[in-house]
Model the fold of this input.
Amino acid sequence: MHDTSQEGFYFLPLGGADDIGMNIYAYGANDKWIVVDAGYGFLGDDYKGMDMCYISPDFLEKRKENIEGLFITHGHEDHMGAIAHVWDALRCKVYATPFVAELMKERLEEFGLADQAEIEEVAEGSTVQTETFKVEYISLAHSVPESCGLFIQTPHGNIFHATDWRFDDGRLDMIKTDYEALKKIAQKKVTLFVCDSTNIFVDHQEPSEFQIRQNLLKLVPTIKGGLVATCFASNLMRLESFILAADLAGRTPILLGKTLHTNIKLAQKCGYFKDLPMAHLPEAADGITSDKALYICTGSQANYHSALAMIANGENKHVKLGKGDTVLFSSKIIPGNEEKIKRMQEKFIDDGVSVVTEEEQKIHTTGHCSKDELKKMYDIIKPEIVFPVHGDRSFIREHRAFAYSCGISHICSGKNGDLFFVSGERITHVDKVPIDVMGVDHKRSVSLHSEVVKNRVRIAYHCSLFASVVLSKENQVVDLQISSKDILDQADWQILVEKIKPELVEHLNIILKENSLNKHAEELMKSTIRKAVYHQTDTKPVTVMHIYQEQ
Ligand SMILES: [Zn+2]
Ligand SMILES: [Zn+2]
Done:
């Protein structure tokens, strides 16, 4: 660790520095730390069977005695999804606004941790004082209610941590921007501004959430036939818009997908959705014909078990779509999910279903700031140093260039695990913390660098092969079985095995004659079998071999 006699504070973006997702940041001063966010990242198709990942909290675990709190900015999976995975490493108090706290309690409950973690609800606009840090929750507009930027005061300088925000027209109650608080933090001086880069390639502010509501209220009543709509389950404003649009169109809103039910239940607990026509469970909607329903469902990102993926595959028992029906995608594509979503949309189109996305109709807007809005924020809070995060490298580069063009003189960025020291107006890279990324494999976690995961990827590309060799006491092959489920279909596989087996047995016997039965001989036998399959199929399968010797 960097040793300094200078006064200052540390900034460590463990995740989120050079990608969108896996957000987890640490701030340190006087040997004490606080952590901001604990989010999931989204895995592409390379990691079969795993959708999510997160940054291993090793660095923090080693300092758990000195962690004064985990502060969650908002209720998106990329900021709070991994709470159950990092909780044991941190074991500190967790702070969040009420709706976000409810979402986290639900997640912890799933993992049997509900009664262990201490979650303290923080009202928007209020401040948490720990031993070393003062953290103020400042309302910022985003695509989930109760999102906040954090104004963090350390004994040696102040930070405004604002990942995921935009300016909105403020016409919907659930999203607000506290301009007064932003002006006040400028007076207290923002040394370091850690900021969202998601929409840095967008020049101008996108339509407000209110405008999208108006568009949906106009569009939905014009649609005939079966109608399914999908959006992010945490976007309560959008869910409310769908329920209102359904009501206007004489359709009954019916919710599909566990997350939606949970989120609406939690939202009601927090005082939202009070005066709305009730959204129904599918079972309660029996007898309502599909042209009189608006099915609102999860699955805009085409996750394998989502309600929408089941509908696309014809596997949902409540909803069958065909010619003349419509699916509204009131959502954007999270990078990495492009292929999955395209495949799902094509399935609908093949079945004669109209697919409406934000490309055709303005039925989605962003929760992130454009260049215009960034400039406005710089003007309000007047930061000394801008540190762009929440974007991949090209986004960070663009954000740096933009900040520079706006007259910001100190701009810094880094990779996950880079440790920075901020003293006065100077930010210095002082160390590199090793980073491991964990894949979420059902309820287990597994390092993406582990042999298990490497083998899964290898098997996905190169198939698998199992060989069982039975040897006599004299080390001669008595039986050889070779099987595979993913190289050829079973009939062709049997023909191949019959063809290569006699010669293979001969080769194995030669190896056994020239070597005693040891690791080296076993490796030779395995590679001989693998090569024989490769010569016939051009496939280099991951090979597992078992040897049995007669007693
Ligand atoms: Zn985010
Ligand atoms: Zn977000």
Remarks:
- The chain is about 30% helix and 25% strand.
- The radius of gyration is 28 Å.
